[in-house]
Amino acid sequence: MAVFFASLLPQFVPPGGESFSALLGLGAVFAVMTFTWLALYATVVAKAGDFLRRPSVRRTIEGVTGMVLIGLGIRIATEQR
């Protein structure tokens, strides 16, 4: 991250004497955006996990997976060498 900030952020700082505060502001914006993204991502993953743990959904997924594995097994068994 240090290389990222040192190489890419200076091009967005206006010329003048306030470069440190501008870089600090850009770093703060980046930190807030990262935190927001990770919080949203964690919320979506938690809700998806709750949905996938439902017995009916789990049974459906296991049934579909089982049919796919049976189909692949039949395909391999009937394949000529």
Helical fraction = over 70%
The first-to-last residue Cα distance is 53 Å
Provide the residue-averaged pLDDT.
90
User: Strand share of the residues?
Assistant: under 5%
Rg value: 25 Å
Residue stretches low in confidence (pLDDT < 50, at least 5 long) are: none
Largest sheet: none
Q: How would the global form be characterised?
A: elongated
Structural class: mainly alpha
Query: How many alpha or pi helices?
Result: 3
**H/E element sequence:** HHH
Count all strands and give the number. Answer: 0
Short précis:
This protein has 81 residues and is mainly α. The protein is 80% helix and 0% strand.
Explain what this protein looks like in three dimensions.
Helix content is 80%, strand content 0%. The protein is mostly helical. The chain is elongated and about 75 Å long.
List keywords for this structure.
81 residues; mainly alpha; 3 helices
Question: How are the secondary structure elements laid out?
Answer:
Blueprint: H1 2-8, H2 19-52, H3 55-78
